[in-house]
Specification:
This protein is an alpha/beta fold. It is about 35% helix and about 15% strand. The protein is built from twelve helices and twelve strands. β9 (about 225) and β10 (about 230-235) form a beta hairpin. InterPro entries: GpA_ATPase (IPR046453), P-loop_NTPase (IPR027417).
Length: about 300
């Protein structure tokens, strides 16, 4: 945080949100040894909180590199230890599982003494024993792996590049659970496929910001929130420049208040370290499907 006053305020907020309090008190770090940064990642606080509650199914439309996988890893480890439930965590292929375990999960555990205490040393690439619970890491290209274990929570990472019928097979492993929880997240591909099917059943939360000039609350979108000539973020109402601090200070607002499934849309432009110029350069340099799927975090219609 930028000041002791900001830090004190954040601690007060964390005390009512158990996983965020745990992250703060244990100085939880990323796989690179960097402490989690709420100053630039305030949009992730409600995501951690909703996942840790273990109350509802969750879906996320997301751009690439918005720290969502880190959140899913930490939250599933925390849930396994503190809620005592078994978890299936899927990725598209077995090779993806190996890279994910070695390049991210194991490195996060190695950076955090509390996680080293929780997770047994003898665990394999495909599972972690956390307290009395097990997290199973599986690919989605063979039916055999889908039918081997049961669970209380299934986490489907990169849904749109996974095999959809195998994901449905994994859902059957929840049949004997009282919770029957599922999380779906991915950068989307095309409408009606993968994560898009679940997004349209969710409460569709958008990151609302308040313009510092006209005080209008709004969520940002493309291209209305951009001055393409000056390469700046702008208010959709008064066209005043939107600062990084305004983007940091947003709040999640549900589009549909009566829906049971929680939905988050995380485009790259709500990340305060990403400039408008960077977004516009992606638009200028990348193929349209890349820009829509991995930058805007939206399905692409060619």
């Amino acid at each position: 945080m930028n000041s002791s006053k900001e830090n004190s305020s954040s601690v007060q907020k964390l005390e009512t949100r158990l996983i965020l309090d745990w992250i703060y008190r244990h100085d939880i770090k990323t796989e690179d040894g960097i402490p989690l940064d709420w100053y630039n990642h305030s949009y992730m606080m409600d995501v951690y909180d909703e996942m840790a509650k273990c109350e509802k199914k969750i879906v996320c439309y997301k751009a690439a590199q918005v720290t969502f996988s880190t959140a899913a890893i930490l939250t599933t480890l925390w849930i396994a230890k503190n809620k005592g439930i078994d978890i299936i965590y899927t990725l598209p292929t077995a090779d993806d599982v190996k890279q994910f375990a070695g390049g991210k999960i194991n490195r996060i555990i190695a950076q955090n003494p509390i996680l080293q205490k929780w997770v047994k040393d003898k665990d394999t690439v495909e599972q972690k024993t956390v307290g009395n619970s097990i997290i199973y890491y599986r690919g989605t290209w063979t039916q055999k792996t889908a039918m081997m274990v049961s669970s209380d929570l299934n986490v489907y990472d990169e849904v749109d590049t996974s095999k959809q019928d195998i994901i449905e097979q994994y859902a059957t492993r929840l049949q004997h659970s009282d919770l029957k929880l599922e999380w779906y997240f991915s950068h989307p591909s095309v409408p009606g496929n993968g994560v898009s099917r679940h997004w349209h059943k969710s409460d569709q939360r958008h990151w609302f910001i308040q313009c510092e000039h006209c005080r209008k609350w709004q969520y940002m979108n493309w291209p209305e929130s951009f001055d393409l000539e000056k390469r700046e973020y702008i208010c959709k109402s008064c066209k005043g420049v939107i600062s990084d601090d305004v983007r940091r200070s947003g709040k999640w607002v549900k589009k549909y208040k009566d829906r049971e499934m929680v939905g988050f849309w995380i485009p790259l432009f709500i990340c305060p370290w990403i400039s408008a110029s960077e977004i516009i350069k992606y638009y200028e340099d990348k193929p349209a499907d890349y820009f829509w799927n991995k930058v805007l975090g939206l399905p692409y219609v060619g």
